[in-house]
Amino acid sequence: MSQASPKVGFVSLGCPKALVDSERILTQLKVEGYEIVPSYGAADAVVVNTCGFIDAAVQESLDAIGEALHENGKVIVTGCLGKRSELIREAYPDVLAITGPQDYASVMSAVHSALPPQRNPLLDIIPDTGIKLTPKHYAYLKISEGCNHRCSFCIIPSMRGDLVSRPVDEVLVEAERLVKGGVKELLVISQDTSAYGVDVKYAERQWRDKSYRTRMTELCDGLSELGVWTRLHYVYPYPHVDEVMPLMAEGKILPYLDIPFQHASPRILKLMKRPGNIDKTLERIRNWRKAVPDLTIRSTFIVGFPGETDAEFEELLDFLREAELDRVGAFAYSPVEGAKANELPNPVSEELKEDRLEQFMAVQAEISAAKLQRKIGRTLKVLVDEAGAHGAVARSASDAPEIDGVVHIANGQLLKPGQFVDVVVEDADEHDLHARLAG
């Protein structure tokens, strides 16, 4: 009689890059015969994939580790917070092992030590796409690890290292496999998508009997051959971003750019160690929109950065009004242990940071509401995420999952997740559209 397969619980925290790490670990666990279970009580051990970027994420990760220890007792910690093992050990000395991000071999070694694998042939049947934590119809496609930038507020390079690009043919093969498995939308992610391939000098590889350089534009060209939505995230505003505009204009990839501008004051941007020519940025945004009228630009900003004056905050608001970005996220500056920005003088008070964040989001809410109002009466192609008795929830080309708005379809009860449909927009609020099926 064969032994029961060892059971592993899994907690995944953090950004989409960390989620992809979780998917890879889960896939390997399944390949080796482990059973993944949804509760602490059913698990023989628990893996917690942590985030360690900002204080709130660190606390969330520590709380998750503590909960797993309390509920189960056998805990393996991985992910970005694993780079601060002394912090974890001080809080929870009984964790079985601690590894850093994308260190899959060490995670599996720790699992093997805690739970020797018992192969079960029935559990070795893994889909070609691997184990996915996203719905079947969309998937994150990670094209690189690490980052060559040294933004003063960020510690990602110290956690994930310098840029390491995946070979372009390897990425395209993975994308092809995902599409064959039912994925309708590929979300391209990395720490710096624009820099893809610079570390390998844009090495040329073959896919489908055609040469592609390991470079963002060529990658997008290849992905466009798959006939699904391709959405670009974490795009640093390099000049060659202009090159993807023709692909968007031709409908080869979605007219959507996720570009974290972070601020608009040249002095603050310099302190952040970010590109600081904001007039040129506005000019490029205008040119992008001329080339791609339906372009959606998403961005993130930090308010209350050390030394930010009232006048510099007003510069940021002025930029927001002039740029009229479609989707915006903002954060009050939070000191991150190890970040150079912590050494800057004249920190902004917590009260003022929160006040500025509230002002910032109020301005953006007006912009967003006005832009969405302009879509009333238009027919849009949307991808259905869920459906039920009260209708369906879908997303347009302007909406990335989890972070942007949605399209509510009042008469979409019979739709299926992963289905593309045309809808007519009937109403809008600050974030979402309300529509009915066309025809």
TrEMBL record:
- Catalytic activity from the UniProt record: L-aspartate(89)-[ribosomal protein uS12]-hydrogen + (sulfur carrier)-SH + AH2 + 2 S-adenosyl-L-methionine = 3-methylsulfanyl-L-aspartate(89)-[ribosomal protein uS12]-hydrogen + (sulfur carrier)-H + 5'-deoxyadenosine + L-methionine + A + S-adenosyl-L-homocysteine + 2 H(+)
Q: EC number(s)?
A: 2.8.4.4
From the record, what ranges are coiled-coil?
A: none
Which cellular component terms (GO) are annotated to the entry? cytosol; ribosome
What positions does the entry give for [4Fe-4S] cluster 2 binding? 147, 151, 154
Principal subcellular localization:
cytoplasm
Domain spans labelled Radical SAM core = 133-370
Write out the similarity annotation: Belongs to the methylthiotransferase family. RimO subfamily.
Name this protein carries in UniProt: Ribosomal protein uS12 methylthiotransferase RimO
Q: Which organism is it from?
A: Dyella solisilvae
Task: Name the encoding gene, please.
Answer: rimO
